Amino acid sequence: MDKNRNKSFLQSLHTSPLIIVGSVVILLIAVVVLATQNYNREKLYMSSILSEKGAALIKALEAGARTGMMGMMWGEQQVQTLIEETALLPDVLYITIINRNGLVLASSQKGLIGTQLHNGSQISGIVPSNEIKWKIINGENHRRSFEVYRYFEPISNQDDWMQNRMRQMMSGRRMMMAPDKNMYLPSNKEDEKQIVLVGLDPQPFEEARKEDIRNTLVISGILVVLGLAGFISMYWMQSYRTAKRSLQDTSAIADEVVSSLPVGLIATDKDGKIAFHNSAAERITGLNLTEARGKDPEEILPSHFCGLKESLDRGESISEKEMECEFTEDNIIPVSISASKIVNEEGQFVGQVLIIRDLGEVRRLQDEIRRNEKLAAIGGLAAGVAHEIRNPLSSIKGIATYFENKFEKDSGDQEMAGVMADEVDRLNRVITELLEFARPTDLKLKETEVNSLIAHSVRLIEKEAAIKNISIKLDLSQQPLSAEIDADRFSQCLLNLYLNSLQAMEKGGQLHIKDYLKNGNVIGIEIRDTGTGIGAENLNKIFDPYYTTKTKGTGLGLAIVYKIIEAHNGNVKVRSVPGQGTTFSIDIPAKNMS
Amino acid sequence: MSNKNIFHILVVDDDFSHLKMLKTIIKSWGYNTVEAEDGTKAVELVRERPYDLIIMDIRMAEMSGIEALKQIKGYNPAIPILIMTAYSSVDSAVEALKSGAYDYLTKPLDFDVLKLTIERALEHSALKAENKYLKEK
User: Fold this and answer.
1) How do residues A566-575 score in pLDDT, each as one tens digit?
2) What CATH superfamily is the domain B4-136?
3) Chosen from B25, B27, B107 to mutate, greatest number of chain A CBs within 10 A
4) How far is CA A574 from CA A222, A387, A471, A558, in A?
5) Predicted structure pTM score
6) Which residues of B touch A390 (CB under 8 A)?
7) Interface ipTM > 0.85
8) In chain A, what are the domain boundaries?
């Protein structure tokens, strides 16, 4: 169940490239988000550095201004000089001090002094405070500057003592020399506050940032490509694995099917060498085809493929051609052979396949059907003939009996009449056995215990055996033996064999009957007598119909035995030594002896 | 069973030779015999007068022995009937006995067996009649 679920999951992976597309989209989004974050971080980092740099410059300016004020020689000119000098620092574009109204009080760009840098609206665009702030200014010629600004306060507003002191110093100075405008002095009035603007060149940072963006884009691109390649590889790998597994499964099924086929398969490669065979091929042909791999079929198969070689060489297909093939010496097998060439998708010849079907069983069944039909026909004929013959026989016998009683006792006439009656009985026996032999072998099989069947049948001949001075030795198996048997017909077989033995021991002897289990699945029954025996020259004829060595026999008794035992899927064999006796051995399949 | 001549036996067979032979032999044993060449005739004869025993072939052209047996038994169930057959089979024997036959003999007949069977059948019939008479009395 789980296996199936896993399989279907894998199959869904395999069959859905949308998952790959979806994964790539997610990867793209992740990369874009990361790149954006990286860009923003760079931007923040750049603004932070430039802000700090601007803040440091403003701090330095304020410190310079404060120091100048301490020396009492402080004025516009000094501030202007300080600003100009400071603005010489690398990456400093300008330093400007303006008042709240945008009037340039001092600037590294001297031309701007006294001009209105920002109009009212522009000045409102920058919101000065005591904290460092910045904004990007697009100047002339698209020159961008990173402008850091805040209130310019060389003396802190909170330091009251210092402010008073500075004011006193500045008013003392006014007395000594023409006073400057009282600019740069700290003022608590909002309108009098000055703003320092430090323009920094953002270009190196922007270039660095652009470089970073380029790098980020390149890395992102590489990541996307790698991710895509990874997903596609995964997809291919999965497809490959699925295809491989599917191929393995198909191959396993094909192997199993081919090896389980009841027909023999022999395949040759494009060079005509034996490349493949299944076990049925070996079983049917009786050849060791494993050793024949890589060899020419002619080396091992009967000459010219049972006469098919020419057709095969011409590339013709052969369909179900029935023939007798001698695969091994003295073993002619009826087979049906089919053959065809194998071509690949490109139409190239890659070999031939030979399919051999064993017709032995089919022929056997056909023969059996024919035999049964023949017997049924004989049976019907025999029944009709029997009726027609037995009526006059009965009349003849009656008349003979009538005269036997009429004639003088012990006279020759009476004897002749008796012989006539006996001959009628003999004729009747022939008819009875013919009827029995011709009777169809439609057995009424029933599970039967063989020991008791034998014991019962032996009781029927005990009297006759005693009259002939024959002892009966019964040697039955200790364990019960069961078989599927038609008890009446099987008993008839046993009786025929017993009577055969009794007739062979006219001067007395011993009849030895035994049964036993062979190999766990076969019941063996042996009937041995110490009679006259049968010569080797006659031994193979004794089961033939109408073959008899007895003067009064019909020659059908053993033929009937053979027929009935065969119908029980068993076999009967005989061995005999003239003068010593005969042994009949019956083998029949045992029923579930476990 | 010394007074065999008091018994009347009906012999039925469509094989004329066999019928003659059988009639002659049974007569030689001291019984009175009447012959019929087919089943129809046998049934007619049984309707005319009672018989002590009927010996009848199973396979006859006009009316089969089994059919005649059934009709005779339907008219007079007390008559013992011996069935003869040239082609014995368990099925036909069972059918005959089921239909009410006293016994079943195969051709060629064993005349010793036939003689004994006739005697036994007549004795059985007589005992049955005596039994019936005593019961009615």
Assistant:
1) 888 898 888 8
2) Response regulator (3.40.50.2300)
3) B107
4) 92, 35, 21, 11
5) 0.46
6) 86-87, 106-108
7) yes
8) 2-34+209-254, 46-207, 264-358, 364-437, 444-589
